[in-house]
């Protein structure tokens, strides 16, 4: 069972690690890795030489060798100057490698996260993968830093064990054998008793910490709604509940990790400190060894004891590293799954057929909720001619917005056919527009990446959507603000229409995109939209919207719907 679990851990680790080490930056990474290995080997050799010189100093003092004492002291001084230089270079190089590795993995995961709108599927339908933002922002960094830290802890420990074992074996083979048996048995016992439990506790801690942060962020983002409801007591009780989960789990970690494991490790490390003198004292008394060999043996023994206990010393970090690998591997496996639709892998259910063409049409379309537990509507057929507008109406919950999700390819649970152009040719305007991080210019041209529109043209568009003073009020096109807080919902909806007039898409989908506007502003925006000859579909409730649409699709019941034609005036 342990071997199987270890194989699973190593497999999950390598699945993530090979992305970078077999990727396009591998040669630079390997060069830095070899540099680090060389620095560790050099530092080990310097430590061995320094340990030998410390023993020689004691021997020269006993022998009253003045010249030998000063020669040995200067050698030890030179070696002592080399060590901090080597370790500064080591830490700098290791952090640089962590930084490059994190950058590459972050870009890779962000690419997977954004491809095929995996971020939407994850947020709406995949509850098992919690807090993807934390996994990208924190777990990737912990993965890269944790691996290099543990790898070089082990490598440094291994190189020093080899080097100082030779020193100790020459002085006292018996002392060497006693140390190895004592240290290895303690390490294996610690892993066997506490390994699985501490990994699980650290995994839960990462999850609970992320949930607590999410609760605080959610409260901040909905501060106004909570204040209107006067729901602060309930909200703060919920946040305190999330923190209590963090507290309880970390309390368990403190008990098992910082008390039980640390107490055992401390006793195990400090108890044998008297063994070198005890074992080699007879050889010193008999004259076989000079007194300096005791200092040399003591130094080698302490170094070996410390390095053999490397797993026990770093057990807390190792358990957290293993938990981070578990979370990152879980996230990676989700992103690797083919995204052919929310429920496309469920072969027992039918899915909607999507056909790309230069028109918008529904053919015998039946739409279910993603879990197939409820039918929203059945057998709807309608075709929208180029330049026409269609309004979708119906009672709340009848599937109006869900139909827009199906057209956008976000839902595919149902049967029938949706004929639509490529998604790149369609602009979707939701009821609450998305306000990007950036300046006013970036708000207006979103989602365009490269824009060449002039300030004069931007001013003209703002005039058309009845926001003539927005630039002056904001301080210019290049001022960055939190636009979701600065602008009212009505202003945000007008900014969304400005994006429409700037990007000039052939097709537009509007999901109650003017719900926060008065009738006059609504009329102004739809008049501009009709003037562009764009083909569009709207979802709305107001009767005032009728006169801007050529077709009205009313969803009356699960199996009832109606199409009416109107003359645009």
Describe the structure.
The protein has 569 residues and is an alpha/beta fold. The chain has two domains: 20-336, ABC transporter type 1, transmembrane domain (ABC transporter transmembrane region fold); 353-565, Rossmann fold (3-Layer(aba) Sandwich), CATH 3.40.50.300. The chain contains 19 helices and twelve strands. It has helices spanning 2-21, 26-63, 66-114, 118-125, 132-171, 173-221, 223-229, 232-270, 275-286, 291-308, 310-313, 315-336, 400-407, 440-445, 455-464, 470-474, 483-486, 489-503, 519-531, and strands at residues 353-356, 360-368, 375-384, 389-394, 414-420, 426-429, 438-439, 480-481, 507-511, 535-539, 551-557, 560-565. The strands form three sheets. The protein has a six-stranded mixed β-sheet, sandwiched between helices. Strand 9, helix 19 (519-531) and strand 10 (535-539) form a beta-alpha-beta unit. The chain is elongated, with a radius of gyration of 34 Å. The model is unreliable at 340-347 (pLDDT under 50).
Uncertain stretches of 5 or more adjacent residues? 340-347
Q: Which architecture name of the largest domain does CATH use?
A: Up-down Bundle
Radius of gyration: 34 Å
What's the CATH superfamily of the largest domain, by name?
ABC transporter type 1, transmembrane domain
Give average pLDDT, whole number: 81
Query: The CATH topology of the largest domain, please?
Result: ABC transporter transmembrane region fold
């Amino acid at each position: 069972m342990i071997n199987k679990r270890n194989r699973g851990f190593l497999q999950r680790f390598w699945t993530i690690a090979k992305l970078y080490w077999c990727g396009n930056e591998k040669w630079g990474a390997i060069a830095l890795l070899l540099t680090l290995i060389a620095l560790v080997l050099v530092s080990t050799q310097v430590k061995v030489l320094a340990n030998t010189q410390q023993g020689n100093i004691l021997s020269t003092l006993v022998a009253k060798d003045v010249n030998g004492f000063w020669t040995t002291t200067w050698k030890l001084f030179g070696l002592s100057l080399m060590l901090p230089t080597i370790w500064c270079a080591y830490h700098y190089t290791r952090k640089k490698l962590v930084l490059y590795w994190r950058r590459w993995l972050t870009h890779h995961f962000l690419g997977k996260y954004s491809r095929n709108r995996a971020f939407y599927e994850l947020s709406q339908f995949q509850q098992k993968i919690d807090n993807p933002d934390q996994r990208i922002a924190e777990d990737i960094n912990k993965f890269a830093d944790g691996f290099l830290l543990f790898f070089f802890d082990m490598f440094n420990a291994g190189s020093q064990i080899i080097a100082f074992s030779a020193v100790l074996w020459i002085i006292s083979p018996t002392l060497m054998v006693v140390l190895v048996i004592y240290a290895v048995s303690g390490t294996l016992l610690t892993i066997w008793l506490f390994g699985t439990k501490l990994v699980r506790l650290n995994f839960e801690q990462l999850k609970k910490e992320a949930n607590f942060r999410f609760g605080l962020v959610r409260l901040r983002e909905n501060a106004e709604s909570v204040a209107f409801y006067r729901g602060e007591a309930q909200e703060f009780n919920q946040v305190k509940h999330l923190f209590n989960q963090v507290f309880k789990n970390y309390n368990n970690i403190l008990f098992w990790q910082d008390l039980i494991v640390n107490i055992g490790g401390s006793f195990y490390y400090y108890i044998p400190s008297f063994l070198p003198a005890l074992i080699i004292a007879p050889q010193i008394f008999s004259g076989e060894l000079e007194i300096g060999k005791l200092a040399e043996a003591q130094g080698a023994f302490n170094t070996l004891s410390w390095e053999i206990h490397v797993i026990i010393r770093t057990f807390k970090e190792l358990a957290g590293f293993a938990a981070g690998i578990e979370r990152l591997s879980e996230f990676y496996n989700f992103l690797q799954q083919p995204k052919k639709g929310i429920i496309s892998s469920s072969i027992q259910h039918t899915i909607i057929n999507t056909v790309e063409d230069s028109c918008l049409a529904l053919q015998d379309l039946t739409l279910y909720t993603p879990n197939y537990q409820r039918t929203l509507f059945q057998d709807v057929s309608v075709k929208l001619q180029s330049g026409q507008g269609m309004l979708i109406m119906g009672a709340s919950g009848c599937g109006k917005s869900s139909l827009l999700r199906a057209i956008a390819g976000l839902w595919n649970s149902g049967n029938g056919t949706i004929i639509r152009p490529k998604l790149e040719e369609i602009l979707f305007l939701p009821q609450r527009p998305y306000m990007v991080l950036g300046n006013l210019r970036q708000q207006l041209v979103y989602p365009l990446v490269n824009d060449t529109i002039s300030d004069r043209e931007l001013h003209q568009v703002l005039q058309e959507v009845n926001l003539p003073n927005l630039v002056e009020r904001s301080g210019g096109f290049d001022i960055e603000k939190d636009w979701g807080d600065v602008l009212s919902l009505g202003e945000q909806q007008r900014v969304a229409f400005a994006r429409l007039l700037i990007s000039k898409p052939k097709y537009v989908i509007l999901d109650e995109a003017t719900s926060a506007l008065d009738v006059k502003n609504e009329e102004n925006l739809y008049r501009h939209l009709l003037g562009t000859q764009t083909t569009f579909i709207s979802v709305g409730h107001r009767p005032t919207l009728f006169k801007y649409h050529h077709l009205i699709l009313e969803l009356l019941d699960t199996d009832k719907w109606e199409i009416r034609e109107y003359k645009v005036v």
